Amino acid sequence: MTIDPDDTSSFLIDIPADEIEGVQVGPWVRRSSSVPYTNPWIQVEHHEVTDPAGRTGIYGVVRFRHIALGCVPLHDDGTVTLVGQHRYPLDMWSWEIPEGGGGKDLEPVEEMKRELREEAGLTAKEWIPLGNLQPSNSVTDEQAILWLARGLTEVKNQLDSTEGDLQVKRIPFQEAVEMALDGRLTDAISVAALVRAAHWLEKNKS
Q1: What single-letter DSSP state applies at residue 140?
Q2: Residue 43 is part of which domain span?
């Protein structure tokens, strides 16, 4: 998805101070909140809190503008398409299922169809839900939605500028599952989606 990098306006609604201070959040109390940084993708918040034991402290929260999306593209011959690219925050190469970010006001599966076409050059006839995922719920509010995609057709991909190094490969599905289980695949969304896809296929095999 191409987003204007010059658009640094906050994507969250500003909360009046009198609605922030003293707010109960489960067993926590949020005493104050500020936004030291925001960009078109994330917002970083600094909270002054009282923890469940009654001690005062701080909590950093990262809020995401988009919903994370991922799908396991399973071909009729039993192979699966993975995409690989360098991940800037970790400075490392990562093989993953096709993933992306979807607008929260848009239909998630339609956004995933776009990502699958753009990254992997594929379309799918069948989209099987594999549930939701919270990739890092101790510091972010990020939510992910997963699918198993079948009935694949090859089309021309449409990479954006951040995906200039992206590579695509097909490997046996079971090999991808083994990579998720033994640690060769480390992307959390990919690991969860592949394991859930294997579970779904096992439960629904004819």
Answers
A1: B
A2: 17-64
What does the pLDDT read at residue 156?
Answer: 80
pLDDT at 162: 57
What total number of domains does the chain contain? 2
Nearest to 69 by CA among 92, 49, 97, 42: 97
In 39-184, the DSSP E strands lie at: 42-50, 56-64, 66-73, 79-87, 92-96, 99-103, 122-133, 144-154, 167-172
User: Tell me, what's the pLDDT at 3?
Assistant: 47
Residue 84 in any domain: the answer is yes
With respect to residue 152, please indicate whether it lies within any of the assigned structural domains.
Answer: yes
Q: pTM above 0.70? A: yes
Q: Per the domain annotation, does 40 fall within a domain?
A: yes
Query: In which residue ranges of the chain is pLDDT below 50?
Result: 1-3, 5, 13, 17-18
Residues 73 and 98 in one domain: yes
What lies within 8 Å, CB to CB, of 188 at 6+ separation is: 133, 135, 136
Cα–Cα distance between 37 and 185 in angstroms, integer? 31
